[in-house]
Design brief:
Strand order of the largest sheet: 4-3-6-7-32-31-34-35-27-26-23-24-11
Number of domains: 2
Number of helices: 4
Mean pLDDT: 84
Number of strands: 35
Low-confidence stretches: 1-41
Shape: globular
Strand content: over 45%
Radius of gyration: 23 Å
Largest sheet: 13 strands, mixed
């Protein structure tokens, strides 16, 4: 849908940035909002002696123990041994002396997302659960102040408010963290309106559409939604674009990825927010972090004619928290210079999709995407795994989901061998929520699965996700991510996997 002439271009800068959850058209649902977690899932310790009793201790992401969590060892209650469904004590601990063979571990607790670790040997584990999404999402509201608006300069100033990103988000990234599924309506001209993602801040400004008509654009307030309460860090990513040129190209039926190189990114700013109520006020002054002087020189991959590749610079501000400074769409084997933040470590993210998947009328429902995130080296060429040949297939076998994954190549487009490290699966309800006068579809993640290698088939434990858990869910989405590394051949599931991961190729299916 092409409302308001410039909306597709604004959506492009954020949709392109969503490197794993990428490229659902904004007119359809997106993923569950703001779920970045650093992916600290588990830690396994080798048994000290053969006599050491296997055990599991369950924590949340704040390192607090989770009592009364259900722990299933195996594929179903009673398999592979009797009494294999346990409950953690007040210390989040459960001993498992009967566990003697390789099998799945599944942990389920009230207020958390269910988690399964595939094919684990007996040992002592620390399992970290992610918090379940709140039914009513907390909202952060405010303005990005101080943008250098100058009426009549032919440039439109904007800012996008989004969470900072951790490298672990490469494996479980949610698009709603970048492109809000909620809209704000902007008046354009002659009673015409356009819907902008709610996390865009567009200060009041006037530009000429032609010799006779001037348009005043005004959406100064951003609305950013999170899945739950807690301390959050937000980033105002600001820039400008040539107003008339972008509108003319969109009116000529250009897709939004075809105009994204007209956008110039100039600065960013960081603010913390303690989100502990339904609404939190947050104004962010613009211009505190400048993108001037430092650059990263890169080259795109050898993509096919029907594919689109985007590359952008992520800067590590501190402790593995990344923010963007520039992005560009490139042709096959094209060189480019990306702005970076001086003095900060830089990673280059590359994103590959079929061109048809950027158009809601033609896109493939499998939502196939390939992405990489690697430390910058001067003159580096984008390294990407091929897209999956198709999305996964899912069959419900009496409460046990059987997921079949298409055969994937571990050779990049430039024939580099990538180590097939791990597979992650997320299962989410697609829920309808009311936003003003409209209903919005969002994802509510219910089950996270992680295993080593790239299996062709996964059968989850018999533990149904009951429809009654959420009466608003109309469908379920199953998303499979194959995770690779150009540096590590194997790793345990947990923090070491996050450090080693450099490549992902993914697909999904809705049931």
């Amino acid at each position: 849908m092409k409302q308001g002439l410039f909306i597709s271009a604004l959506v492009s800068i954020v949709t392109a940035f969503a490197f794993i959850g990428c490229a659902e058209n904004h007119d359809s649902y997106s993923s569950a909002i703001y779920s970045t977690t650093d992916f600290k899932i588990s830690r396994r310790f080798e048994l000290i002696t053969p006599q050491t009793t296997p055990s599991i201790q369950v924590f949340n992401q704040a390192n607090q123990v989770v009592a009364n969590a259900q722990v299933l060892i195996g594929s179903a209650v009673g398999a592979p041994f009797r009494d294999n469904l346990k409950i953690t004590d007040s210390n989040g601990f459960v001993a498992l002396p009967e566990w003697t063979e390789t099998t799945h571990i599944t942990v389920n607790a009230q207020g958390y997302i269910r988690q399964t670790l595939l094919n684990q040997k007996p040992g002592t584990f620390q399992i970290k659960l992610n918090t379940a999404y709140m039914t009513t999402r907390p909202v952060i509201k405010g303005q990005v102040t101080g943008l250098p608006v100058k009426n009549g300069d032919k440039m439109t100033d904007f800012s996008l408010v989004l969470p900072t990103i951790a490298k672990g988000d490469l494996m479980t990234f949610d698009l709603d963290a970048i492109v809000s599924p909620f809209d704000d309506t902007v008046n354009i001209i002659f009673g015409k309106t356009a819907d902008l993602p709610s996390n865009v801040s567009l200060p009041t400004q006037t530009e000429k559409f032609n010799f006779l008509i001037s348009l005043t654009l005004s959406k100064p307030e951003h609305r950013v939604y999170t899945t739950n309460y807690g301390q959050k860090t937000f980033y105002a990513f600001s820039g400008k674009f040539p107003f008339k040129e972008v509108m003319d190209q969109l009116n000529a039926d250009k897709q939004f990825y075809e105009v994204m190189n007209l956008f110039e990114y100039t600065n960013g700013s960081i603010r913390e927010a303690n989100v502990n109520s339904p609404t939190t006020a947050l104004n962010i002054p613009s211009g505190e972090i400048k993108f001037d002087g430092a650059t990263a020189n890169v080259k795109s991959a050898a993509i096919a004619a029907d594919e689109v590749v985007m590359m952008f610079a992520l800067n590590d501000l501190s402790g593995g928290r990344f923010v963007p400074s520039d992005l560009k769409r490139l042709d096959a084997n094209q060189s480019a210079s990306l702005k970076t933040i001086a003095g900060k470590p830089v990673h280059i993210v590359s994103l590959l999709k079929k061109a048809i998947d950027y158009d809601s009328a033609t896109r493939d429902s499998a939502n196939r995407t390939s992405a990489s995130m690697v430390a910058y080296k001067t003159g580096m060429q984008s390294s990407l795994l091929p897209l999956l040949p198709a999305g996964p297939t899912v069959v419900d076998q009496g409460g046990a989901y059987k997921i079949t994954i298409p055969q994937a190549s571990n050779r990049t487009l430039d024939a580099q061998a990538i180590n097939p490290l791990a597979v992650s699966v997320s299962i989410s309800n697609i829920n309808k929520v009311q936003d003003g006068q409209v209903q919005v579809d969002i994802l509510d993640r219910k089950w996270e699965v992680l295993g080593t290698g790239w299996p062709n088939e996964i059968t989850l434990p018999v533990w149904p996700l009951e429809d009654s858990e959420d009466a608003t869910a109309v469908k379920r989405k199953f998303e499979v991510n194959l995770i690779g590394s150009e540096t590590s051949a194997q790793t345990d599931l947990g923090d070491d996997l996050v450090k080693a991961a450099t490549h992902v190729t993914k697909g999904s299916v809705e049931l």
